[in-house]
């Protein structure tokens, strides 16, 4: 059972209860029991589970409920709040300052995912405008420097290390001094791991700490150890003044839930979760978004952040859309942007209600479909790409040529052109409306969109809406629209929520295709750079395996 399954189980328990006609104390007790069992199976400490169970029961005291109270909402809110409490370390991590050198030192047992996480974090900061670099002070494991070097080159991060120096303290000092002189802002020092020798690990940590004076020391913990993470994080908290934790491999094990709650219980801040082997598989940890995501309520703030960090190139397309134009090349650019965002299943977790819907959807299938669409575009000549697609209707033989050139079928080419036609129609309708939208956005004070959306999500959560009990895991779009200011069809400065709703419905019209991640994410996050609604029907001709 992976973390997602834990969320689904809790979600199902709450939804079953709130939908049942007899919402009585007996049914409520059964729900609390099911949630507790799921948590214990995810290796959450039994004592913590008992506390959670008692707190939920106290919050929803059936004997003293006044008749007018909305039981459903009260129960959803109690479960949400208690889960947040369970994973909240109540400790603020260090925040790096721009324009200053911030030294971050990594420690952890061998194989915990330290070197991988160092590079992920350097890339994360680099994507957010920090000048980041890596120092390899792991002189213990042969090949450690080469591994870091390879990762760093792939992520385009400057690095320092030595094949000959055997003293980790000397390498760390030399590397940090060099990068400080070169005015790097995030200097990440990777140290050697030990195999179950905590004393050695902490001794070396102290020595390097002494030499490089880190602003933050991060311990990397493999979350598959579940609640055993408590002992390690407790020892670490005592040894490191500025200690924070990254929990890795949360993608593979339900025990991640146990590890998160165990670390939280020691009040050591959890800064990030490792969610896979890929460079982009690092998610900032924050209790409320984490629980929202776990319960299928999405993490809009996280989605916005993710999209912004990808620095997607939308300039040409946006310029076109403001003029009411949408060429096939624009479609191709959007398809590539979707590909850059990472596996569809991961994106889905951030979108309210979507993770449940994507249940069973195959990432490989989705990305294959996208690739074939890109191949089709790549087989077109410049004139065709810059066209509005009409030339294919006038000269259908062009389709045959392209199908042959791209190794696809004429039907697939037709589908792509239909998709394009629909989007071009939307672009035309939007035309100048988008310009107004950007103007209005400026007039709104240019506030931080990510913050606004995160606040909105918080509000949704506290209202007990969203994925839980929203009927089949879908969010309550009406209230979401209300919260966003009444929908923006009139170009009033807010995103086009009707298009968003369509996309959340994921190709509903087309019959179980892929939802439009790029457009959705852009609409939510890329207001400055402009939104891009309208690919809801994509995949309508797809495999139909979106909802098995
Ligand atoms: N699935 C998954 N695998 C991960 C994650 N983080 C790291 N890994 C994998 O875990 C393995 C060990 O990672 P390393 O980064 O080499 O571990 P390390 O702690 O630096 O190891 P030493 O240098 O030997 O101390 C590698 O195969 C990584 O790809 C994660 O979040 N999810």
Overview features:
Four Helix Bundle (Hemerythrin (Met), subunit A), binds guanosine-5'-triphosphate, disordered C terminus, flat, Rossmann fold, 434 Repressor (Amino-terminal Domain), 8-stranded mixed β-sheet, 548 residues
Structure description:
The protein folds into 3 domains: about 5-85, Four Helix Bundle (Hemerythrin (Met), subunit A) (Up-down Bundle); about 100-295, Rossmann fold (3-Layer(aba) Sandwich); about 295-548, Orthogonal Bundle (434 Repressor (Amino-terminal Domain)). Mean pLDDT is about 75; it is low at about 445 and about 460-548. The protein has an 8-stranded mixed sheet, sandwiched between helices. The radius of gyration is 25 Å and the shape is flat. It has 26 helices and 8 strands. With about 550 residues, the protein is α/β, with parallel strands linked by helices. Helix 10 (about 255-265) links the parallel strand 6 and strand 7 (about 270-275). Helix content is about 55%, strand content about 10%. The structure holds guanosine-5'-triphosphate. It catalyses: GTP + H2O = GDP + phosphate + H(+). InterPro entries: AAA+_ATPase, P-loop_NTPase, Signal_recog_part_SRP54_M_sf, Signal_recog_particl_SRP54_hlx, Signal_recog_particle_SRP54_M, SRP54, SRP54_euk, SRP54_GTPase_dom. It is found in: Cytoplasm; Endoplasmic reticulum. Belongs to the GTP-binding SRP family. SRP54 subfamily.
Secondary structure blueprint with pairings:
Elements: H1 3-19, H2 25-41, H3 46-59, H4 71-87, E1 102-108, H5 114-127, E2 132-137, H6 144-155, E3 159-160, H7 168-181, E4 186-191, H8 198-212, E5 216-222, H9 229-239, E6 243-248, H10 255-265, E7 270-274, E8 282-284, H11 287-294, H12 300-309, H13 315-322, H14 328-340, H15 344-350, H16 354-357, H17 363-378, H18 382-385, H19 390-394, H20 397-406, H21 410-430, H22 433-443, H23 449-462, H24 477-483, H25 497-504, H26 517-525
Parallel strand pairs: 1-4, 1-5, 2-3, 2-4, 5-6, 6-7
Antiparallel strand pairs: 7-8
Helix pairs in contact: 1-2, 2-3, 3-4, 4-11, 5-6, 7-8, 9-10, 12-23, 12-26, 14-17, 17-20, 20-21, 25-26
The chain binds guanosine-5'-triphosphate.
Guanosine-5'-triphosphate binds at residues 108, 110-116, 138, 141, 144, 193, 248-249, 251-252, 274-277, 281.
């Amino acid at each position: 059972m992976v973390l997602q399954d834990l969320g689904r189980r809790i979600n199902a328990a709450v939804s079953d209860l709130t939908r049942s006609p007899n919402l009585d104390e007996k049914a409520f007790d059964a729900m609390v029991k099911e949630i507790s069992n799921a948590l214990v199976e995810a290796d959450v400490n039994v004592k913590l589970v008992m506390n959670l169970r008692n707190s939920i029961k106290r919050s929803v005291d059936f004997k003293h409920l006044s008749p007018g109270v909305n039981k459903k909402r009260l129960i959803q809110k109690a479960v949400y709040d208690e889960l947040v409490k369970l994973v909240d370390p109540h400790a603020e991590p260090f925040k790096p300052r721009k324009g200053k050198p911030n030294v971050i030192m990594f420690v952890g047992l061998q194989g915990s995912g330290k070197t991988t996480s160092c590079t992920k974090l350097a890339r994360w900061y680099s994507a957010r405008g920090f000048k980041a670099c890596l120092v390899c002070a792991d002189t213990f494991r042969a090949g450690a420097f080469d591994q870091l070097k390879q990762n760093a080159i792939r992520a385009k991060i400057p690095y320092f290390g030595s094949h000959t120096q055997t003293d980790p303290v000397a390498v760390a000092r030399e590397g940090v001094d060099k990068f400080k002189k070169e005015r790097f802002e995030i200097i990440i020092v990777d140290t050697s791991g030990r195999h179950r020798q905590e004393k050695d690990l902490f001794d070396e940590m102290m020595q390097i700490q002494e030499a490089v004076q880190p602003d933050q020391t991060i311990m990397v913990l493999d979350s598959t150890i579940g609640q055993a993470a408590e002992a390690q994080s407790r020892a670490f908290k005592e040894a490191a003044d500025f200690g924070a934790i990254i929990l890795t491999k949360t993608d593979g094990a339900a025990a991640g839930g146990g590890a998160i709650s165990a670390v939280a219980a020691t009040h050591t801040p959890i800064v990030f979760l490792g969610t896979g082997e890929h460079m982009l598989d690092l998610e900032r940890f924050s209790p409320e978004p984490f629980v929202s995501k776990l319960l299928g309520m999405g993490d809009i703030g996280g989605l916005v952040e993710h999209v912004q960090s990808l620095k997607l190139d939308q300039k040409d397309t946006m310029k076109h859309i403001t003029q009411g134009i949408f060429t096939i090349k624009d479609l191709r650019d959007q398809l590539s942007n979707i590909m850059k965002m990472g596996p569809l299943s991961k994106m889905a977790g951030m979108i309210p209600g979507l993770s449940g819907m994507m249940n069973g959807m195959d990432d490989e299938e989705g990305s294959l479909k996208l690739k074939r669409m890109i191949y089709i575009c790549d087989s077109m000549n410049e004139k065709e790409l810059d066209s509005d697609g009409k030339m294919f209707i006038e000269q259908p033989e062009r389709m045959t040529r392209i199908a042959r050139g791209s190794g696809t079928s004429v039907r697939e080419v037709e589908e792509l052109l239909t998709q394009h036609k629909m989007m071009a129609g939307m672009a035309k309708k939007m035309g100048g409306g988008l310009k107004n939208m950007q103007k209005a956005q400026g007039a709104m004070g240019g506030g931080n969109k990510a913050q606004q959306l995160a606040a909105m999500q918080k509000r949704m959560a506290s209202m007990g809406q969203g994925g839980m009990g929203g009927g089949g895991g879908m969010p309550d779009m009406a209230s979401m629209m209300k919260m966003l200011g009444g929908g923006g069809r009139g170009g009033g400065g807010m995103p086009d929520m009707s298009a968003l709703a369509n996309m959340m419905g994921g190709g509903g019209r087309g019959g179980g295709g892929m939802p439009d991640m790029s457009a959705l994410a852009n609409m939510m996050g890329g207001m400055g750079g402009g939104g891009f609604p309208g690919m809801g029907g994509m995949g309508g001709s797809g495999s139909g395996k979106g909802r098995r």
